[in-house]
Amino acid sequence: MQAIEAAMRHGCRKNERTQQRFQGSLEMNKRLNKTEYSSRQTLLLLNKILNFRSIDEFIQL
Q1: CB 60 within 8 A of CB 47
Q2: ∠ CA(51), CA(48), CA(46), 5° rounding?
Q3: Exposure string (b/e) for 28-59, b if CB count within 10 Å is 16 or more?
Q4: pLDDT of the residue at 21
Q5: Alpha-carbon distance 28 to 59, whole Å?
Q6: Is 9 buried (19+), middle (13-18) or exposed (0-12) by CB count in 10 A?
Q7: Per-residue pLDDT tens digits for 12-21
Q8: Domain range summary for the chain, segments of one domain joined by +
């Protein structure tokens, strides 16, 4: 009986660690997605700046 309880406790601890790891990777993914999005926005803005034809067009950005 004690062996079964010990195994169950071990399983619970292992499960908690797996959940923490999974939660950590979810948070990391969210941060990376935000970074990727802002990088894309920056590149689009740079593209607009580099392709402008006149100073007036640039000011309108």
Answers
A1: no
A2: 105
A3: eeeeeeeeeeeeeeeeeeeeeeeeeeeeeeee
A4: 80
A5: 37
A6: exposed
A7: 777 777 778 8
A8: 2-60
Per DSSP, the residues of 14-49 read HHHHHHHHHHHHHHHHHHHHHHHHHHHHHHHHHHHH
pLDDT for 4 equals 76
Q: What pTM does this model have?
A: 0.39
Tens of pLDDT, residues 18-41: 778 888 888 888 887 777 777 878
* Torsion sign (Cα): 28, 30, 33, 37: negative
Residue 60 to residue 41: CA distance in whole angstroms? 17
Contact 58, 49 (CB under 8 A): yes
